[in-house]
Write a structure and sequence with these properties.
alpha+beta, Jelly Rolls, Fusion Protein Consisting Of Minor Coat Protein, Glycine Rich Linker, Tola, And A His Tag, Chain: A, Domain 2, five-stranded antiparallel sheet, five-stranded mixed sheet, 17% helix, disordered N terminus
Length: 398
């Protein structure tokens, strides 16, 4: 259920209004005095005249990212039943039968939709009264937990992968990177209180902008990304204000799609023999783009700073078992194919055989986190060398 803040107010002091009256103008005067005090903007009156046991229904479209206040006058206890539903007929609010006086409740509208106000006469006499709707301004969620709850309402059948939390000082920036896999559909969700406060951008590794939030987007914002190339993508969140800001971005796995060049694991020896047998007579231009599986001197993992002797030990130390996989008790072996470039840096990593989106994502993250290697050489020259490396995910203390 969308988060609804409910405030019940018996507003009987300070207003020159006869509580036994059912005069619509008198009710309007009483409500106007209250919402002006709260600095709210009048939007609409709902005037109704209902017979005993009769129910009337009003519908209105409300805008995303806005806080609305609803007011009604209850002359007596067990007098009126006031209900509010969203466009999916989900009950958002209903008053208590013993309520009397001015009734006020607020709606934080996280997406533009039609809302339905239902007024039912539960008394034994005809009732003429009114309800009023006001715009109470832009609502703001201050905490990450509040934003997370709003986002969770929007996520459907997707698999949670990762969330990025940022606690931003005035005019500060948050930067994070994530590895996404080829032939995969991802969705990003975030929450924006005010589009003038936060700027969110997603870039690929060539600094092309894949997404940025627009000036009219408030509340929960989502965007899909059809990933055609495995690689590193960069999330930037900027605080544009002189106040502290919190933000959360949630990444989910929305499915796979097929492409013409489906990746498969091919035995390395077969590819190596082919490459080695075709090395004689190649041009310098061909040599510059050639990648190898076996060379005279293979690349060597080195991490003197942390005293890690081999890549397998680095993988074990770096691994952060995804919570999603832990919750579902998922284990397995992910095969990652990557290239150690002639400059010693890892590049072009991709999942050759996966297990689960969360495990695949973590395997790629580990590989891209690798420090610089000692590059491989062929005929005394540094060259690109391809590896296919298995990363085992095993849950301890099961």
């Amino acid at each position: 259920m969308k988060k609804i803040t409910i405030i019940l107010i018996a507003f009987v002091f300070g207003i020159q209004f006869n509580s036994k009256s059912q005069n619509v103008e008198g009710i309007r005067v009483g409500i106007e005095k209250y919402y002006k005090m709260e600095k709210e903007s009048f939007l609409k009156d709902f005037i109704f005249n209902v017979e005993p046991n009769q129910e009337v229904r009003y519908s209105i479209s409300l805008n995303k990212g806005t806080l609305y206040s609803w007011y009604a006058w209850l002359n007596k206890k067990n007098h009126l039943q006031v209900s509010l539903y969203d466009s999916n007929d989900k009950l958002l609010f209903r008053n208590i039968k013993s309520d009397r006086g001015f009734l006020r409740f607020t709606t934080r509208c996280t997406k533009s939709q039609v809302y339905h106000l239902l007024i039912k006469n539960i008394s034994s006499e005809p009732i003429m009264t009114m309800a009023t709707l006001t715009d109470a301004g832009i609502f703001k969620l201050q905490g990450i937990d509040e934003m997370r709850k709003e986002i969770q309402e929007e996520i459907k059948d997707e698999t949670f992968l990762k969330e990025f939390n940022s606690h931003l000082e005035p005019y500060s920036k948050f930067r994070s990177s994530v590895v996404l896999s080829k032939n995969t559909l991802y969705k990003f969700y975030t929450f924006v209180n005010n589009p003038d406060d936060i700027k969110i951008n997603l870039y690929d590794n060539k600094e092309n902008v894949l997404f940025h939030n627009k000036s009219d987007q408030k509340g929960v914002i989502s965007f899909s990304m059809k990933c055609n190339h495995t690689g590193v993508y960069h999330l930037h969140v900027d605080n544009l204000t002189d106040k502290q800001q919190n933000n959360i971005v949630v990444l989910t796995f929305a499915g796979k799609f097929q492409s013409k060049d489906i990746e498969k694991i091919t035995p390395e020896v077969t590819k190596t023999e082919t490459i080695i047998n075709t090395q004689e007579g190649i041009t310098k231009e061909e040599e510059s783009t050639t990648v190898y599986f076996v060379v005279e001197k293979m690349p060597k993992y080195k991490d003197k700073a942390n005293k890690i002797k081999n890549f397998n030990d680095f993988v074990k130390q770096e691994m952060q078992y995804p919570q999603e996989a832990l919750n579902e008790n998922i284990e397995g072996r992910v095969y990652v194919q990557f290239t150690v470039g002639k400059n010693g840096y890892v590049k072009d990593a991709k999942v050759a055989r996966g297990v689960h989106p969360a495990l695949d994502q973590e395997a790629l993250r580990i590989v891209y986190s690798s420090p610089k290697w000692e590059p491989g050489t062929q005929k005394g020259k540094a060259v690109d060398v391809i590896f296919t490396f298995p990363i085992n995910f095993t849950i301890k203390n099961k």
